[in-house]
Specification:
10 helices, 2 domains, 8 strands, 287 residues, alpha+beta, BirA Bifunctional Protein, domain 2
């Protein structure tokens, strides 16, 4: 489970985003996308919980802003909390509602205004919670250590609902927890895929094709390479982070080549280097 929390200045911006369809998509594009991926792009937002608030988008914004005025000194009166399940997890509607209530209690806004929204336009279901840190008594919820608290709560929820154990971000761990060796399942999976794709591969194009068949997209630039899962292109992992920098991949492919091809490739590289050297010398003579 991936969890994030931010403090917001504008309720209007957060509420409109969570309760509206994506503005960049026309009605025709939404229908076409839904046919392609089987997801719900029209009316993507389902409100699971209204707490001390109710109504349309304009009405919700007005209600939140009215209560915000009870504590004018607060620069960021809103919480925007995001939680997404892993691809293999299948939380039910009622479980998402329970999770929203657990979060509200943990961050002490269970008696404040908040709305919990489930989005249906992504392959991995996720919720957004927009909460008013300002209560009806004018007191404001303390936001101290919010990032650490949401990371810790996410780990607890994963165990409670028997979800895939996703390591928390290192920046959200305590100094003691950062010393504990961690196994990143995403990186382990990628490392195994690269190792398998390199077996008996004789060209980089063949390696790229094999990685695509395993569900990965890669980006190679100069001497670096990075990978991402096709189903989640927001997270890219560098090859050097899993023990396979670009040079190592090139070396492995070269080792797979028959001796005759290896020699021919070496000769080609030597010819290219010699050509670059001649160009450099020619350029120097003209200066």
């Amino acid at each position: 489970m991936i969890a994030r929390i931010t403090m917001t200045k504008s309720f209007a911006k957060s509420i409109r985003y969570c309760l509206s369809d994506k503005k960049e998509l026309s009605a025709e594009q939404k229908e076409k996308l839904s046919l392609q991926d089987g997801l719900q792009h029209k009316d993507r937002a389902e409100v699971l919980v209204y707490n001390n608030c109710y109504g349309s988008i304009p009405e919700l914004i007005e209600q939140f802003e009215d209560v915000q005025k009870l504590s004018r000194g607060v620069k960021k009166p809103g919480y925007h909390i995001f939680m997404r399940q892993a691809p293999e997890d299948r939380l039910k509607r009622g479980q998402w509602m329970e999770i929203a209530q657990v979060i509200a209690k943990e961050f002490n806004f269970e008696n404040h205004q908040y709305v919990c929204v489930l989005h249906h336009d992504a392959s991995q279901k996720h919720i957004h919670i927009i909460a008013n840190r300002v209560g009806y008594d004018g007191k404001t919820v303390n936001d101290k250590f919010s990032h650490f608290r949401i990371a810790k709560l996410s780990q607890q929820l994963q165990k409670e609902y028997n979800l895939r154990q996703t390591p928390a971000s290192r920046r959200h761990l305590s100094p003691e927890e950062r010393l504990i060796p961690r196994q990143n399942q995403r990186q382990e999976k990628l490392r195994a895929a690269i190792k398998s794709a390199l077996e008996n591969t004789h060209s980089f194009a063949e390696f790229e094709k094999r990685m695509s068949e395993k569900g990965y997209q890669l980006h190679q630039k100069q001497a670096g390479i990075a990978f991402c899962e096709k189903q989640d292109k927001r997270i890219w992992t560098r090859g050097c982070d899993v023990g396979y920098p670009f040079k190592t991949i090139e070396k492995q492919i070269a080792q797979n080549l028959p001796p005759a091809q290896t020699k021919a490739k070496q000769q080609q590289e030597e010819q290219q280097q010699a050509q670059h050297l001649r160009q450099d010398i020619s350029y120097s003579l003209h200066i």
